[in-house]
Amino acid sequence: MNKHVMPKLTRRGFVIGTAAAGAGLAIGLDIPFGGPTVVRAADGSPEVNVWVVIRPDDTTVIRIARSEMGQGTLTGLAQLVAEELECDWSKVVTEYPTPGQSVARKRAWGDFSTGGSRGIRTSQEYVRKGGATARVMLIQAAANEWKVPASECTAANSVITHTPSGKTTTYGKVVEAAAKLEPPADVKLKDPKDWKIAGKGVKRLDTLDKTTGAMIYGADVKLPGMLNAAIKDCPVFGGKLKSYDEAKVMAMKGVKKVVRVSDSSVAVVADTWWHAKTALDALPIVWDEGENAKVSSESISKWLAEGLDNAQPAYIGNQNGDAKAAIASAVKKVEAVYNYPYQNHATMEPMNATALYTADKCEVWCGTQNGEAAFAATLEASGLPADKCEVHKHILGGGFGRRGMTDYVRQAVLIAKQMPGTPIKLLWSREEDMAQGRFHPVTQCKMTGAFDADNNLTALHMRLSGQSILFSVRPAALENGKDPAAFQGVSPSGDAAIGYSVPNLLVEHSMRNPHVPPGFWRGVNVNHNAIYMECFMDELALSVGQDPVEFRRKLMSKHPKHLAVLNAVAEKIGWGKPPPQGVYRGIAQVMGYGSYVAGAAEISVTDGSKIKVHRIVASTDPGYVVNPAQVERQIAGSFVYGLSALFYGGCTVKDGKIEQTNFDTYNSMRIAEMPKVECVMVPSGGFWGGVGEPTIGVAAPAVLNAYFAATGKRIRSVPLRDQNITFA
Amino acid sequence: MANLTINGKSISVDVEDDTPLLWAIRENVGLTGTKYGCGIAQCGACTVHVDGVAMRSCGVTVSEAAGKQITTIEGLASNGALHKVQQAWVANDVPQCGYCQSGMIMAVAALLKEKPKPTDQDINEAITNICRCGTFQQVREAIHSAANA
């Protein structure tokens, strides 16, 4: 059974100051692969290198730096290490190194960040090298013992064989000697076509505890003497905490303390969380809501609409030819305005963190998508240096981008700091989680297409107006003010490139940043960009009486990988052949996170407002597939997340606050609403794409295009509940 | 003070009568497999069995639960053997993040007790738990495989 216990390593003695471990932890990535000094895990077993610990009984402990939030990365990364290591998969367990240990060892485990569908694709090479390097050292140790050339030895299933003599030994028997060897300067990685463990749909390593209630999420952490905290931050973003009347609640059962956490938040600390939450609800709080209390969805919408005007300044994200001139002189012009709302991540496990602060140490236990960012937040909030701080990562009850933020970690430390020596578990109520999201950004988009007399598309102008995530979250990533990520899915090149060639193309972004804090929401900017582009592609095709797939194909000849997934989906769903009576089809494609994806839906519509989704087909080319069973689950789950947002989602602003408070006003799809997703994987090799996010982009436009096919009505605004359209 | 019977054991918990059963289970009894997701009986992450019926424990008070047989995810296995729903969950690799799955499994175990061979329609009507990861396809397959086990 897999236990996510924290390794207690023998630390090499040096201290890194807080400056070095500040935001982003900008320390050069230097991955040590073993060496003459043997580093030992808590149970005394030696590290062959930072990724691989082998116990005398041949158990292989594989270290996983990225976070597991359901997406299967923990299992996939272990498969990649095990593949190169040639170890016995049935004896593999995993463990999370801590960010504090990593910093103390010059970032031995590299980047901990788990977002942007990067968990596997940006660490696959060095973790595979970790496995391969360990294998070479283990074989060398056996060869040394036998006094034979290593080239005469092979390894499989944790057993090393000297082929000429038939002698065998196991990894557990030679690991002590192997750990003392100099690692090889370079190792050759396997061709993925030779994979035996990677590339297979092996079972996840974290399932059993998730079926028995034994898995300890952050919300389940228990420490001796621990107290519980419930918090309220000013519901108007940017507002301040003016005052509160703690005398009204101090006599309530279990209440220990009322704490001003920051200039905008207050928490009640009590024996149980239920007592803390009950007292917090009773606590009279006065907010200084400030100017933002005047903001509403209507005022945001009006401001964004102004950005659709070509006279307003905009950043250009993709351009060829002269789209504006071509449109001005076109025989025929098609124009449409779309919009996409704020969305809350709504992870099933609300935000939480447990912190213990003493004068010379601060420890945090939490689920986080970025252990190092949580560590940096702990340093900053505690004021203690890196060697006095630690973050213990737990399995996440959902992430979707929300737990890449560290606001909740900071809050827990700030509360604990006011109660030194007492562990404090801070848990947000669902209502706080809804109010204090880091929301999918709000955008509008004006799409304009132009045709010549022969109905050829001569120009396409995509004018986005709306919020930039990077402006708020990572301003250093802006390029002369421009947010390059705003063009995800419609970029000229890279891992989110447009799949169409149009003689005159202009994609631009009028950046407008309302006060609502944005965040990376699974799929991020691909979500709305794919709706705008893919619904409008159907509008363009139908405006000239062409089949939507045929119309796309004509624009995709220079984009063979985009085209391949579109074709795979079209073939599987039977595009070109009539669907069943009363059933209508829609299709969409996009590239995001380095992968090419397409999706198609078959739906029926009753009374114009009740949609039943009968069938979904999806195709992905992620280059290489590490675990097809988990990729299929990510693809299917992406439709649930994307269609929940399309049908039920949308966060609205009134008096500066988010109006939705819980799952009764921000609903999510249930099993009855979700058909089987048929996956067609077409991995073409040669590159590494992500799979957790891109498919969300095609979920909504496939259904919206099918809705048009069924009703002749074009929906250009999300969510559907605003138009009284729901599931049948 | 309430006298609860949880997973066959009698336990006195020193809480107010209107304390939600969920929080008594998690904080006073210390069984954290039952999860908090919404607190308003919408998501089902806190589903437990009360006298064999699946109930959302955030919406049941301890005084209502007193004297009844309460089963949590920790009490579903018997004599060291996983319940057939848990076995099917493991065999079908159902959980993604897993946070909603305690409640999902409890809801399914109650369904199978009532309807040993549920149709897809039975599943659609009885299983209304939210799963944000969206592992519904595996849930449906695992329910059928548990029913046929």
Question: Overview of this structure, please?
Answer:
The complex is a heterodimer of chains A (728) and B (149). Chain A folds into three domains: 47-208, 2-Layer Sandwich (Aldehyde Oxidoreductase, domain 4), CATH 3.30.365.10; 218-290 and 351-427, 2-Layer Sandwich (Aldehyde Oxidoreductase, domain 4), CATH 3.30.365; 297-343 and 439-727, Aldehyde oxidase/xanthine dehydrogenase, molybdopterin binding domain (Aldehyde Oxidoreductase, domain 4, 2-Layer Sandwich), CATH 3.30.365. Chain A is an alpha+beta fold. Chain A has 17 helices and 28 strands. In chain A, strands 10-11-8-18-15-16-17 form a seven-stranded mixed beta sheet. In chain A, helix 1 (73-85) packs parallel to helix 3 (124-146), helix 13 packs across helix 14 and helix 13 (525-543) runs parallel beside helix 17 (696-711). Chain A is globular and about 80 Å long. In chain B, helix 3 (84-91) crosses helix 6 (136-147). Chain B starts with a strand and ends with a helix. The mean pLDDT of chain B is 97. Chain B folds into two domains: 2-75, Ubiquitin-like (UB roll) (Roll), CATH 3.10.20.30; 84-147, DNA polymerase, domain 1, CATH 1.10.150. Chain B has 149 residues and is an alpha+beta fold. Chain B has helices at residues 21-29, 62-65, 84-91, 101-114, 120-126, 136-147; strands at 2-6, 9-13, 47-50, 53-56, 69-71. In chain B, 36% of the residues lie in helices and 14% in strands. In chain B, strands 2-1-5-3-4 form a five-stranded mixed beta sheet, with helices on both faces. Chain B has six helices and five strands, in the order ββαββαβαααα. In chain B, strand 3 and strand 4 (53-56) form a beta hairpin. Chain B is globular. The interface between A and B is large, with 60 and 59 residues.
